[in-house]
Hints:
By secondary structure, the protein is mainly alpha-helical. It is about 55% helix and about 5% strand. Strand 6 (about 645-650) and strand 7 (about 655-660) form a beta hairpin. Helix 18 runs antiparallel to helix 19. Residues about 50-80, about 80-105, about 410-415 and about 625-680 have low confidence and may be disordered.
Amino acid sequence: MPTKKVKDSERRRCARACTNCKRRKERCDGRQPCRRCIERGAVSECSLRPPRRSFSVVSALPSPLSECSDPRSTTIESRNGPLSNHTDGAPHGLQHEMALRFPHFSRLIRDDRGTFMFIGDSANHSFLQNVRRIVRRHVGDCIFVDDPLRHHMVEACPSKGHNMILDNGTAPPPKPSEDEARSLVLWYRQATHCILELFDDATICDSILDWLRLSQQPVDALSATYSLILAIGAQTCPEDYDEIAEKHFNYGRYVTLATLMDDPSIATTQCHVLIAMYLLAQSRRNAAFMYLGIAVRGAYALGLHREDVSALYDTAEYMTRERLWKGIRTLDLFMSASLGRPPATLETRDTSSKEHYSAMNDLSFIFENILTEVYAKRMITTECLTKISELHRSWAARFSSGQSVEAIDAHPHHETPREQETGPNIGVIHLKEAYYWTIMLLSRPFLIDYVSSISPPETGSPPNPSHHSSTPSPSRNILAQACVDSAVRTIELIEPLLTSKSTPKRLPFIVNSAFAASLIIGLSLFSDLEGSMPLRRKRLGAACKILEKFSVHDLVTKRYLGIVEKMIGACDAFLELQQRKRMEYNNDLISRLFGRVDAEPPARETDPTHETSRNNMAQWQGFWESEPAAMNQPTPSATGSGSTIHNKMSFGGLDEVNYQEEHSRGTMMQPEDGGNPSLPDLGDIGSFLTPRTLWFDAYDSGALFPMVGSSMLEFASLEGDQNA
Length: 724
């Protein structure tokens, strides 16, 4: 007899139960979180899973990832050709199906005001949580793992309340002398070299001096722009001009908001970019992110994103518009990558064109593709990796030839604001550290994958860090090695700033790269990657000194310094633990061979001398007999270079491969050209890399940050209302 249909009003169970109640076969009230999950204390695990769809239906529907990423994917295809056919169809549907299997929670982190802020995968903070997870597995609980601020976003707060703009920005600041103005402009150019060149360096200083000679400065765009330039110069100079910088900044921001907000213009966009740069150096990243958003919308309103539109103007106006767009792109991609948020700009130019070629703008294109093709989709495919690595090689070739409007190869050391000495070219440092950061961002998931596959040694076993839960492939090995190599080179690149007297006291781009490199070098100490362990440990100490230099005036850098110092303690504890285990293991082997007189023997019922001696000698006899044979065998390379790749079959559009080691019976095979036999031919990187899809969610066994549901957000909002 069929079951009688029940009306919705009379239904005793909800139509959609949470995943916990479904699994436990309990009655759910359908709320978020439900009553039973609250009673069990499992609020963070209470989620409503989307209805399951068939594979064919999912493949036919446009996925959210494709809708937001397809326009950007055309940028990488336009330069390197279309993607192969096997990336469409079934694999796309599989990717969408995988995305639907995970709860729709955001990674939120509290700022100093208690507000929840979003932090994505590319952010250093997200990577830091992965490092903590690995350190906990190898070392256990320590101050680095259990940092009380690990779920907080440290930022500087305004020092003078919410009415600071009206209270302190309406009055013009005191005029600097001409010598002071020249010095501040030079410090502005020094701190923003290659990343924010909004103005013509040949004329900007004279224009500011002419503006200062006016008996009364008008409240207009020039006053706002020049005040903000002087503010950044005072903010970055080594002298204690922070109060002067704050006065110029407050006045420049007040004039911008009071007179330039009605209509988009070049001056309005320039001022908002300068405000964002000042706030970024002041450790106020979220505020800078908001002002930069206004600048981006103004740029789109003016058509700065289209080179053909800018070409309609005269040469001077064309160069002004191009410089402004390049500065917006640089700030946008930097903040998007460092905070893990989607970029707000999209490049339509051919950034590799020789005419007016900009190395920094070309790097921004690489950043864009990494964020949109890798981190937005939370996966890495062989095709994407091949195309982005080709962009890296092309950029490096153009950088070496000096084809750039930044004149990057002209002066490795140039005149500094003090004029009597020469110092490191910060423009070159900005370019190179950004290049290394793109490599670290692209290869960082492979380093996490590589180190996560290493199992901690069991009790009584030799402390061999090469014990992997799965056999590492050559591609994963070399990409993890590239990540660590770029981190080491970043620290070596920045190190000369420690001894230079012409170094600005605030350099947020360089500080970010130093912190990212520190985390990568620290994580590499828990792996068996090729390289000198003492050298990496030394570079980690150098990174700590770099952060210490900039932490005096930067709250975010001070927080970074504390994290790196705690990580160094965890690394030293791990290395000491490995050394102790190695000594204990060796002592055990020695005692079995020669005996031990300084240890109390265990009590035995019978005399074990004869039996123990015979067992130990049999063990050592087997070891000695196997030693000559082992010495005649070739030493396998840690990078898996002695492997050949054989395609076996195709599944889901991606080739599965097996790596079979070739063992020679004598000496190692030497290449005909006398090169290093341990390195494979990387001319065709597509044939070398493992055709394997690396899913970010494979390591999401635990949340990087506390899961935040709707109830917690409502509670936080109520708490904020009560505090207000």
